[in-house]
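User: Could you write out the 3D structure of this protein bound to flavin-adenine dinucleotide? I've included everything you need below.
Assistant: Certainly. Input first, then the structure.
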Amino acid sequence: MEEKAVETQVAIIGGGIAGAAIARELSKYKVDTCLIEKEVSVGCGITKGSMALVHGGIAYLSSRIIKRMDSDLSLEAFLNQPLNVKERLGEAGRDMYFELAPLLNTPITRPGRVMVAADQEQLELYKVIKKVAEANGVKDIVILDRDGLREKEPLINPKFIGGIYDPSEAAIFPPEWVRAFTENARDNGVHVFLDTEVKAIKENNGYYSLKTSNGLIKAEFVVNAAGLFADEIAGMIGKGDFSMFFYKCQMLILENKGYIQHVIARLPEPGRPRMLIPTTHGDLLVAHSMDQSTDKYDLSTTMEGLDLISTYPPDLIPNISPRKDIKASFAGFLAFNTKKLPDYLLEFPEERFLNVALAAPGLGPAPALAQEVIKMLADEGLELVEKNDFNPYRFTEPRFIDLPTEERNKKIQENPAYGHIVCRCEHVSEQEVVASVGTGARTLDDIKFRTRAGMGRCQGGFCTSRALQIMARELNVSPLELTKKGGNSYILKCETKELNEEEEK
Amino acid sequence: MFTKEVDLAIIGAGPAGIAAAISARKAGVDNILLLERAENLGGLLHQCIHNGFGLHYFKEDLTGPEYAERFINKLSSADVELCLNTMVTHLYPDRSIIAINQERGEFKISPRTVVLAMGCRERSRASIGIPGTRPSGIFTAGLAQRLVNVDGYLPGREFVILGSGDIGMIMARRLHLEGAKVKAVVEVMPHVGGLIRNEVQCLHDFDIPLLLEHTVTEIYGNERIEGVKIAQVDRDGIVKNSERSIDCDCLLLSVGLIPENELSKEAGVQLDNRTSGPIVDEFLQTNIDGIFATGNVLQVYDLVDNVTLAGERAGKNAAKYAAGTLKKQHKEIKVLSGENIKTVTPQKIVGFEDVELALRVQQPVEDAELIVGNYSKKYRVISPTELIKVVAKSSDLETFWESGEITVSCHKRRKDKVNG
Ligand SMILES: Cc1cc2nc3c(=O)[nH]c(=O)nc-3n(C[C@H](O)[C@H](O)[C@H](O)COP(=O)(O)OP(=O)(O)OC[C@H]3O[C@@H](n4cnc5c(N)ncnc54)[C@H](O)[C@@H]3O)c2cc1C
Ligand SMILES: Cc1cc2nc3c(=O)[nH]c(=O)nc-3n(C[C@H](O)[C@H](O)[C@H](O)COP(=O)(O)OP(=O)(O)OC[C@H]3O[C@@H](n4cnc5c(N)ncnc54)[C@H](O)[C@@H]3O)c2cc1C
């Protein structure tokens, strides 16, 4: 019994930053494209639990230092080696984010990066990095002496004697960018399948048949951008000659009570990238203790991990007390493919089947990666004809609370639901919750990531009950059917009285 | 922007805000505006459908809504303007207020006096940093209370409750009566966090297991919570090899309340590290002229009766301030927390009259002696779960004006001094 299949030219597996950026890039052309994501929302894989930096030049160079250990080259020669694919795309991707931000209506900030030196030796090392960076065309790098460091970050631990400053380091909120790419791709004709897991793939007669949890999809080309699961997807066509390996990173979100302005980092040591990041939301992110991990579903945090991370912030900024300023803790997977370590794996193991198996960092390079992938597909025979009606703009409602007063009042007059504030911490209006249901939010986490209701200090203590009511009304379902993040993550168990009635029976 | 001028604006219409409004009106303030973000008056009381309210104030045992009802009735005859469904979004040092609602949109209020009565929020999982997965099924006890008592839904059927604050214990009983199973109430301290009355009436009377000196060390389950790991705790932290798992489909947190401080901070109101609420004098006035604070926003009260009294005091003093009759000295006495004192309000004394201090101790003490400057008072037991009131007489305060400090402390009476 052959079910009726969806037919398409290109099937992209995985709605992470990679898959979403590729989908949007492809939507510029007259190509029939499907984006397939197993979760109920895009951006819920590795991308969700990442640190959100679009790295500047010295970030790449300084992370090379970790790998220098068993090299005979001098530091300068080692740093001077040609850029690998990841680094090259990273350099190109950064500027593209800034071009895309106004088109996709999605914020990116440029806090810049300050790396601190604990001693003269590290400071000398930064001087070499600056020299190499400048030779590569990276501009505006500054070596900081003690005073210079304090001018950048007045509260920095006095034990640091100086540092290096790179103004180009930028920060994004990754799930928002994945959503932006996806929505703009969809507006330009890409079919987005959510809650659709690819279970098996067969090749026949020039087509790949993707058996999914949601029916059959037949595609001429397949782009495997399944993140952590890219090895398993490749395995489905018998080409599992690599695997994804990953570290579990635990992170804390703290309230940024004016502690820092820049991304602050120590010179990375293996497994201890001690960094403080001011997020686009005005919080502070601290990562991370890293443990190599084998369970792709285990994103639990541990007491030891949280204790360890809690020591990082005071080391950099003594005024911070993580236990007091903490808003949330979570974990993410820092993932790499084994085949091209530490670079990206971009290759066709089979005709018209492209592996896009990344290695961290994968956010910064994503827009450039997407262009690279399109080129590779064209070389593989995909015909690319530009659309003349491509719409590069993604329309988003600005956050109600960010509007000027007169506009806010006009909106409330037109639609009183704007005047009903349902999230006390982030000041989100009822209408914004309604609108996000309108654009596809189905879970409480969807609402949270779209509107920020539930992300504030009280972590949903106030808005949960209200958001559930609004969602249930808008979706015309019982609140009992609503979930936190799909699957079995229901929020309410039953109506009151039900358990006692059960007992009586 | 539409601007409204009033004599007194009160932010929050819980028991504290309502009492402040009624008493300010009684004291002759004409033009009062009461602002409340919820759809009804009464604050937390609305969801507290159990009894135990009003034992002191009315000498009657009322439910939360019944208690609220009495004041709401008084309020309706007091000619106070109400703005429900109205979120106050800003409060500035010049006392001006920005609020949003459906009828007026965003508007400004220019009050001569302000009473802060925003109450508390609950500490969340994040703020205590429990490790583990991030499934659904973890709620603060107050949110669960709202879901059950107001919305009519049970958030689970097998519960573990972390923390033995009053809300947690009351919810344990409520859930038990709803036919759910409360497998354990887990408390890190050697005593419950809430009232002894609630320990007896909510836990013991229903055989709900209370595990003192225990905590939750991990949360399991990917989509919905499936269980927690708990462990014994002693002075050095978690006791090795004492961990065990409990299956549950819901975890409630009753791990403390934090005053809603965002508006206070924005207005430049100084906060007390110990209470986490504003620093006030005995008139409940903050460091910002004309801004008063009362109720749970000032400090966490356990009995609503005391909240009402504090609200009345704020209202009365706000009225005096508006009339220019608040009598203050040009100096102050700081009230310092000494041995075994966790919190004390007011934090400073500036007037000529007797002052009622409200304090909490850190550790329970039997045969206790409470010392305020040169004055001392004996107690058979003093417990951290109770807010204790003592009066410092103006005559006793006289010697402290010069140093500008008075210390409050509490310790065990020395054996030889115990007489019966
Ligand atoms: C702690 C941490 C910090 C990081 N910091 C940075 C940083 O600062 N800067 C930076 O650039 N990078 C950073 N990274 C790395 C970056 O986040 C990742 O490289 C990038 O997000 C990977 O994106 P992706 O699209 O490849 O994978 P994913 O986001 O995992 O996307 C893959 C998608 O495929 C879906 N999928 C999987 N299997 C199937 C299937 N069978 N059927 C359908 N769909 C499927 C998944 O659900 C997922 O949504 C960090 C990562 C971590 C963990
Ligand atoms: C579960 C529970 C059980 C209790 N049981 C008992 C008991 O048995 N007996 C007893 O005597 N006491 C009990 N209490 C204590 C008592 O109910 C509280 O101490 C009392 O409600 C506190 O009053 P409040 O007015 O200070 O704060 P709240 O009642 O919290 O009121 C504050 C009000 O301010 C509003 N507000 C806050 N911010 C804004 C803003 N920005 N804009 C507009 N409005 C705002 C809020 O919506 C709220 O209505 C219990 C408390 C709880 C939580």
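Chain B touches chain A through 55 residues (CB under 8 Å).
User: Perfect, thank you.
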